[in-house]
Amino acid sequence: MYTEDPGWILRLIGYKRGTLFFHPSMDSDGLHPTAAAPFLFRDWMKYMLNDWKFDNICTAHIGVKIGGAHEAVTTLLEKTEPVFAKLSEENKKKNPDGILPDGMHPNTNVKDDKCV
Fold it and tell me: Could you tell me where the Basic and acidic residues compositional bias lies (predicted)?
């Protein structure tokens, strides 16, 4: 998510002008509840950053970052590394067997490497 000019609620919780951040659902139901899921997401982001030299990004819910988006996402990913480790540990404690809940499938709507 990106906000050029955060509202008072976002400022109250520490977001500054020009903030890029992951959707808050990443800490709850945004990723599969397995120990591997946070690192799989991180690695997917790293591959995307390596393969795609974008300059702008349209983000969830709030805004569009024009210019410098690749660098901003790279920085966000680096700063979020401890969060991925924390989420992995929490998931390992809650779900030591790494079993996905009913209705949650590892490759929903994916065939080969394409969304269907």
Answer: 87-96
